[in-house]
Amino acid sequence: MTYLCKIYECDLLKGVLFFRPHIDNLMDRYLNTLYDHRRWLIGWAILLSFSAVGFHFDGARTSMWWESFPLAAVSLVTLGLMLLFLYVSTIQHQMDLMRSKIDHATGDSLENLPGVLTTRQEQIFYLILAGKSNKEIMAELFIELSTLKSHINQIYKKLKVRTRTELKRKHSKRG
Questions:
Q1: Domain segments of the chain: what residues?
Q2: If DSSP codes are grouped into helix, strand and coil, which group holds residue 161?
Q3: Half-sphere exposure (Cβ direction) of 88: Cα atoms closer than 13 Å
Q4: 3-state SS, one letter per residue, for 4-62
Q5: In degrees rounded to 5, what are phi and psi of residue 61?
Q6: Is 69 helix (H, G, I), strand (E, B) or coil?
Q7: Range 107-175 has CATH code 1.10.10.10
Q8: What would the pLDDT profile of 31-86 be if each residue is shown by its tens digit?
Q9: The whole model's pTM is what?
């Protein structure tokens, strides 16, 4: 019996290893689709979380919705948090994809990026290197133009460049 279990586990492992590239491809497509609809994800997460704290008006008495249905409120908040986690995962996946595309294009790892940039400045740096315009970066990161310009100026200052072209040229020389 033990011998049969070992054979079964081995065959199962071979099957998993065979399907691994297909599973990875499906996950990439799934995460890219979620990324395309990221505004819906965050919207539903917020809506579900706020709907858990709704009010009920009954004549002269006002009560919280969840007083009568605590399990429903907890479920809504949990679902909202799960959607928020999905949102963050898709953003992280997209940043990893951009990072690998830039690494491949320049032949250099961006791990050498000076550690003086904040996380947000690093995101903007990658988007600039990917050729995104200010308008596209603002839409992708949900920030105002003044905030974006402030980040870009800080990046220029920290990396000692004056323009996007100079930033891209300096980065491509690192390879």
A1: 23-89, 107-175
A2: coil
A3: 7
A4: HHHHHHHHHHHHHHHHHHHHHHHHHHHHHHHHHCHHHHHHHHHHHHHHCCCEEEECCEE
A5: -105, 135
A6: coil
A7: yes
A8: 778 777 888 888 888 888 887 777 767 777 777 767 777 788 888 888 888 888 88
A9: 0.47
Within 8 A by CB and 6+ apart from 171, the residues are 106, 108, 129
Q: For the segment 28-45, what is each residue's pLDDT rounded down to a tens digit?
A: 777 778 777 888 888 888
Identify whether the C-beta of residue 138 lies closer than 8 Å to the C-beta of residue 128: no
**Long-range contacts: 89-92, Cβ < 8 Å, 24+?**
89/31, 90/31, 90/34, 90/35, 90/38, 90/41, 91/35, 91/38
Alpha-carbon distance 23 to 79, whole Å?
25
pLDDT at 163 over 60: yes
Return d(Cα 171, Cα 107) in angstroms, integer: 11
Q: SS3 for 63?
A: strand
Task: Give the contacts of 81 (CB within 8 A, at least 6 positions apart).
Answer: 45, 49
